[in-house]
Write the structure tokens for this entry.
Amino acid sequence: MGNNILQIATYFGLFASLVATICYAPGAIKVLKSNDTRAISLAMYILTVFGCFMWIIIGILNVTGNILNDNLWAALSGGLPVIISNLGLGSFGLIILVRKFLNLKRAKAKNLTEEQYFEKYIKTKK
């Protein structure tokens, strides 16, 4: 009975990690296409990427601890969805964060604000 519950938890967790990752995809794609990062909070994405990294470590520790205790389903249900969702969320968050950093760096190099840089160099390319 216990393993059945853990199997169900694993499948729900994997589905939830897929849904959570997909929700970030449109934002990352939009930033990649438009290169518009003006409305994006640098602090939020730094914390998001850092938090995802920490959750990946927690997931790995959970999987490792349960495998060492010969409990494969507990390892899969407790850690695998956490690792997968945070790899996805962290990857999309990192894409957005890198684009934000690049825009800020380019604007600073030209002694412009990010808004001015966008208006002068990015928006005009379209």
Summary: Residues 21 and 88 are 5 Å apart (CA to CA). The chain has a mean pLDDT of 89.
